[in-house]
Write a structure and sequence with these properties.
Number of helices: 14
Helix content: 25-40%
Shape: elongated
Largest sheet: 5 strands, antiparallel
Distance between the termini: 66 Å
Number of strands: 19
Length: 559
């Protein structure tokens, strides 16, 4: 059985490789997963499965987006669910599911108040800001030209509420013309026309006063609320939201609590509600992107040496019978010289026919995940030491100078630095730096052996669509080297040169290409409610207006 399982796992692994080469990542993921289950202890199968999961999940997300654009909601939801099942860490799949489930099934209703322990019941009993609750919600029609107090009293009777006036308020005659208007809208019209403002004292009683800065400061309702941030990952996130709230809501008091990722605010109920809406709009999880970087390096080296090299040297040596080390000749020796007294040394001849063809292909595929605006760095390789030294001269404490040798380490391999900026439409702007260093031998400097470091790097800022591939940069080197070694003249005659010389020809080709492709893991979570404008009243005071759903306007939910 173990042998069969091993053979089955190998076959499945090969099927996965074949499917991956066809970019059928779903089939490749299934094959790798089955191979991993057959041999759970095989790291090669497990690594292949973990590597292909994000790609297979991304493939289903792409299909889901296409189906969603074509209006096929059920099919799109199935693709997003499949993507989440393959890779649960893929936030884009969860976002796609959430966006479609709201269209298929209504959102579940949340309970009004969670159960609290007995010791917190007193805190739970603290009163919320007073809200006006009229007896009748029927639209009001009113056409009058009277004193403002009389008009306020007429509206209050129609809605079944009580109205009180500030003793310092001096009313004036105004004219109103209202038809089928809600109570709060009618009160707003009368307040604007008469230069007054009102605030609820109880659920069925309002208090009216002149609309001045002093009166608003004295009478306007105040409340306190703690607003929590769900996605603050650093101090700047909290500070940015605090700055936005201070600039928009100039009259509120707020304080940030970094340890709790919370903001304590005091202001009017409308100001607190607007602050809550602003935090909901701004406190979003940072989008994330996965970057596939492919480094392809192709080296070709072809060397050809061919020809015959005849002897290039000839030397003669004189032999004498004299024992003198200087080998001088006497007249008697000179008279008796013959061929036996000379020896000739002829250089070697060489015939060479050699062809060397080397083809090397190297591909590296690092993958890096980063959040929006955050720099991410990945290093793959090793660190090698480099000797450094300092010279110290003679001093009172040290009679003789000395050299202090130290070592520092440098990174060798692939170093990738990336800072992504993810846009609302799904495009990704990348500031990328990819650097490849290698150890290309050693050199001796002043008796110290130091490594020779080869380096190729590229640094760019580009904007890409999700899944779009782009070549960051490339490096191409060509070397064409020809050499001749042989007999002068004869070695240069066409057709005969190979008989009297060795012709060498070397061709080198080196090419390095950086390919980059982004995949959104988590997009920007912005819904239509985050994009709609909100009526905030006048520049003197924040006054929010509730929009009730009607048959003709259902795009905006009540605040």
């Amino acid at each position: 059985m173990p042998i069969r399982a091993s053979q089955s796992a190998k076959s499945l692994y090969k099927q996965g490789q074949s499917a991956e080469a066809r970019e059928d990542y779903d089939s490749a993921c299934n094959a790798y997963r089955k191979a991993m289950l057959d041999e759970p202890g095989n790291l090669k199968y497990k690594t292949a499965y973990e590597r292909i999961r994000p790609l297979a999940s991304e493939q289903h997300i792409t299909r889901g987006k296409e189906l969603k654009e074509n209006g096929k909601i059920t099919g799109a939801l199935a693709e997003f669910l499949r993507a989440a099942a393959i890779d649960p860490s893929n936030e884009a799949a969860g976002q796609g599911i959430a966006s479609l489930k709201d269209q298929i099934t209504p959102a579940p209703q949340k309970s009004d108040m969670p159960q609290l322990p007995n010791e917190r019941k007193r805190l739970a009993g603290l009163a919320r800001p007073v809200e006006l609750r009229p007896i009748s919600d029927e639209p009001i029609s009113l056409h009058m030209a009277e004193d403002a107090k009389i008009i306020y009293e007429s509206l209050s009777k129609a809605a079944g509420i009580n109205v009180l006036f500030d003793p310092e308020y001096n009313s004036k005659r105004i004219s109103v013309d209202l038809t089928n208007t809600g109570l709060e809208d009618a009160l707003r019209v009368v307040a604007t026309t008469s230069g007054t403002f009102w605030k609820p004292l109880t659920g069925n009683t309002i208090f009216v006063a002149a609309d001045t800065r002093a009166k608003r400061t004295q009478l306007e309702q105040q409340a306190i609320q703690v607003l929590y941030l769900a996605n603050a990952t650093q101090q700047n996130d909290l500070n940015d939201i605090q700055t936005a709230l201070r600039n928009v809501l100039t009259n509120v008091k707020l304080y940030g609590v970094q340890s709790q990722d919370a903001i304590v605010m005091r202001g009017s109920p409308d100001e607190l509600l607007l602050a809550e809406q602003l935090i909901d709009d701004l406190d979003k999880p940072r989008p994330e992107v996965m970057i596939d970087v492919t480094v392809m390096q192709v080296d070709k080296d072809k060397v050809r040496n061919m020809g015959v090299q005849w002897p290039q040297t000839l030397s003669a040596t004189l032999k004498t019978t004299s024992t003198d080390s200087n080998a001088t000749l006497t007249l008697n020796d000179l008279a008796n010289l013959n061929a036996k007294n000379f020896s000739l040394t002829v250089g070697t001849a060489q015939a060479e026919m050699l062809l060397t063809d080397t083809d090397t292909q190297i591909m590296q595929n690092p993958r890096l995940r980063a959040a929006d605006g955050q720099k991410a760095t990945m290093k793959i390789g090793e660190r090698i030491p480099i000797a450094t030294g300092s010279f110290s001269g003679a001093s009172a404490s040290a009679a003789n100078p000395y050299v202090n040798t130290q070592f520092q380490y440098i990174d060798i391999g692939v170093v990738m630095e990336m800072t992504p900026i993810i846009h609302y439409n799904g495009d990704v702007t990348l500031k990328v730096k990819v650097e490849i260093t290698s150890h290309n031998g050693d050199t001796t400097i002043s008796g110290v052996t130091e490594p020779i470091i080869g380096q190729q790097s590229v640094e760019e800022m580009i904007r890409l669509k999700e899944g779009e591939s782009n070549i960051l940069g490339g490096l191409v080197q060509e070397l064409n080297n020809k050499g001749v070694s042989g007999t002068p003249g004869l070695g240069e005659i066409p057709g005969l040169k190979y008989l009297f010389s060795i012709q060498s020809h070397e061709v080198q080709h080196e090419e390095i290409v950086f390919l980059i492709r982004p995949h959104l893991v988590r997009g920007i979570e912005i819904d239509p409610l985050n994009l709609r404008p909100i009526d905030t009243g006048t520049s003197n005071a924040i006054e929010l207006r509730e929009v009730r759903s009607t048959a003709t306007d259902t795009s905006v939910s009540p605040q």
